[in-house]
Specification:
Blueprint lengths: L3 H5 L1 H8 L1 H19 L6 E5 L5 H10 L4 E6 L2 H10 L6 E5 L12 E7 L8 H9 L2 E12 L6 H7 L23 H10 L3 E14 L7 H9 L4 H6 L4 H15 L3 E2 L2 E14 L1
Parallel strand pairs: 1-2, 1-4, 2-3, 4-5
Antiparallel strand pairs: 5-8, 6-8, 7-8
């Protein structure tokens, strides 16, 4: 489970500190989502869960000076990072807010985009109903979300480490990176929020897993897995012995996953499209 409080607190801070490293995992599928949205010059676009601003920057470049992109995220640390990234893009506006309750400009946007943010709404139907009110009739919506864990080894490899006394976060209630793994789930939530023509295609890619400057790519991959993601949540507060066991476990399993100087693991995302 990753709650709103997590994003406001520790999780948002960690992502803001390591946002460039996360681009190796999020960037390829995010670009596929942007291609599906096909933003046009002069459009006004809403970016849900804008994070550190990579997707907002891409949208702002596409809409140009005549358009506007409004990025929304609950994390103060991620919004701060996004403001730094977007300081030279006046067509990009940012706000620290919850899209479930924020009073958006009614019928003010031509499209809405979300790169791995839509899965974390605690009340998705209410959130999308609120977002729907901000869109013009017929506006386009594209959401990028992870498929099931079995298709995403960046999650299953570290999650296969089992140590006594460490709870498995997949058993926790509430939103998670895989809340939209089942396509029926996002179809129901978007439809309940007032969207139509919901469809999805999957995008498969090799996720680059790397953090830091260590010359050993395996150690860079382990550094990311132990700072952000499902294993990091399991090891938080764990004894040092468990952390050493996790490092040894991952070293053995990642040694053969190095390609062109980086650990790369199979990943797969849904590119979800809908209309307002």
């Amino acid at each position: 489970m990753t709650s709103r409080e997590d994003w406001i607190g520790r999780t948002g801070l960690e992502w803001s500190r390591h946002s460039e490293a996360m681009e190796g995992m999020l960037g390829p599928a995010g670009q596929a989502g942007l291609d599906a949205l096909a933003p046009q010059a002069g459009e006004n676009i809403l970016d849900l869960g804008c994070g550190a601003g990579a997707s907002t920057a891409a949208l702002a470049a596409a809409v140009g000076d005549a358009g506007n992109v409004f990025g929304v995220d609950v994390s103060p640390d991620l919004i701060l990072a996004a403001r730094s990234r977007l300081s030279n893009l006046p067509q990009a506006d940012l706000i620290e807010a919850d899209a479930t309750t924020h009073a958006f400009q009614p019928a003010g946007y031509d499209a809405v985009f979300s790169r791995f943010g839509s899965m974390f709404f605690e009340d998705p139907a209410a959130a999308f109903a609120n977002v729907r009110g901000a869109l013009k009739a017929g506006a386009r919506a594209v959401m990028v979300a992870w498929r099931e864990p079995a298709q995403n080894q960046w999650a299953t490899v570290p999650m296969s480490f089992v140590a006594e006394g460490l709870a498995d976060p997949r058993s926790a209630p509430g939103p998670s990176p895989f809340s939209w793994a089942d396509p029926d789930e996002f179809k129901q939530q978007l439809t309940a929020g007032g969207f139509e023509s919901v469809s999805a295609t999957h995008y498969d890619f090799m996720a680059a897993v790397s953090l830091g400057e260590d010359p050993d790519p395996v150690r860079r991959a382990i550094a990311l897995m132990m700072r952000i993601g499902p294993l990091a949540a399991r090891l938080r507060g764990a004894p040092e012995e468990a952390k050493r066991e996790a490092e040894a476990f991952l070293t053995a399993r990642l040694a053969r996953r190095v390609h062109q100087g980086v650990v790369r693991l199979p990943a797969s995302a849904w590119i979800v499209s809908a209309e307002a």
